[in-house]
Prior knowledge:
Structural class: alpha/beta
Largest sheet: 9 strands, mixed
CATH class: Alpha Beta
CATH superfamily: Ribokinase
Distance between the termini: 32 Å
Order of helices and strands: EEEHEHEEEHEHHEHEHHEEEHHH
Helix content: 25-40%
Oligomer: single chain
Number of helices: 11
Radius of gyration: 18 Å
Number of strands: 13
CATH architecture: 3-Layer(aba) Sandwich
Amino acid sequence: MNPPAEGDLDILCIGEPLVEFAEIGREEERLYRRGFGGDTANVAVAAARQGARVAYATALGDDPFGREFIDLFAREGIDHRAVVLEPGVRTGLYFIHYGPDGHVFGYDRIGSAASRMGPADLPGELIAGSRVLQVSAISQAISSSCTDAIFAAMHMAKGAGRVVSYDTNLRLALWPLDRARATINAALALSDIARPGLDDARQLTGLTSPDEIADHCLAHGCRIVALTLGREGTFIATSEARGLVPAFPVEALDASGAGDAFTGAFLAEWLAQGDPFAAAAYGNAAAALKTLGVGAIAPMPKRAAVEAFLSEHRTA
């Protein structure tokens, strides 16, 4: 599968940005550092920092948090003309807690502005003018109107001859497994690039091996599968070839947002080079660098850092 022809934008992300509170004090009195997150917002920043032309579409509360996201997108060079501030509605939040088994998320997003989005709120012109539409299962899980909006956006992108990239992010706190399976399988049938993680994919499919999970996604019509395997790397599969692209070992500090860092970097590099295996190596490097800092967006590396990291490992 080759990247699509040139468009006005490289990547359009649609979803819910969330204000992040990452735990930094682990004594009896715990402290939190405020930042930014939300899976598709993470992808947007990760891709923009690799030089991709990125846009974001969502609704935020017309509150200090929502206005801070507008400032963030402006600083990152992300087109935010389709980001709407809704008076009287809130922006969603989440908290990162750290323990012996890694990070745990807690959410406060019920009734958020983004959860009220529906098909009528979609920026059809931006969807048609973007080479890739990036959406996720989390955005479908936050409300029935958002489920409809994401499906409508995928249909619009497909109708315009654009590539649909879909992250199967599974959050069982948001919906039951059977509903998630039905919705995600229907979304995979509209997707060109599938972006599952191994643990989520095993729950969703009942399958265990990367080969089986890749076959499942390809059978639904996906043309590229980028299955992240954590410390092992990324399993890439197309109809012509498949194989493991190894991860880069680092002393990880915080893995939150690492999969999104991979996705943003992978898409940016695939659009630039057209090789999903090379793009996976690039994405693995970006994800490794992201884990060296705390929080989702703040540690996302820029292209110069990723290229320097890759150069060091080629000569090592």
